[in-house]
Amino acid sequence: MPGEASREEQRGLIIAEPAGRYATRPPLVADCSVLASVLFDEPDRDTAAAALRGHELYAPDLVDHELVSVAVKKSRLGLEEVAAQGLADLKRLQLTRCAVDVEAQRQLALRQDLTAYDAAYLWLAAELGAPLATFDATLGAAAERYLKGD
Question: Is residue 57 within a helix (H) or strand (E), and if so which, with residue range?
């Protein structure tokens, strides 16, 4: 009809967005000790699983190498099935692996007296503004200081 706007002209701009990224699943950086507890059925598995539940999980991209190292140790102890199952479960684990700023990692390791590996987890937690889950007392103490701004 004359004078009527076309269907396209009647529409306003629509931008459809998914729900907030962290709205229902807050981020958590999980270190190798926590992930290995779950994946390789360690005695503290239930504690680790409860800590991970409901979170979007993150780890530095070195995590796969650390977990393969755990699997190798399990295999050498005669726990081949546990090792194989743990690595199979790792493939299905919803875990975002992140690159780490290596110079910042090095500096953090030196300042906090950590291994380079542990510094990677701490750096990532700080970068994401996320908590860090670990069974490692040294890393845990450093994380409590560093993430609180001390």
Answer: strand 56-60
Q: What is the pLDDT of residues 54-105, one digit of tens each?
A: 999 999 999 999 999 999 999 999 999 999 999 999 999 999 999 999 999 9
Helices (H) and strands (E) in the chain, counts: 8, 4
150: tokens are 């001390």
Q: Is 47 exposed, middle or buried (0-12, 13-18, 19+ CB in 10 A)?
A: middle
Sheet holding 56-60, edge to edge: 95-98, 56-60, 27-30, 132-133
The H-assigned helical ranges of 22-114 are: 32-39, 45-52, 63-76, 80-92, 102-112
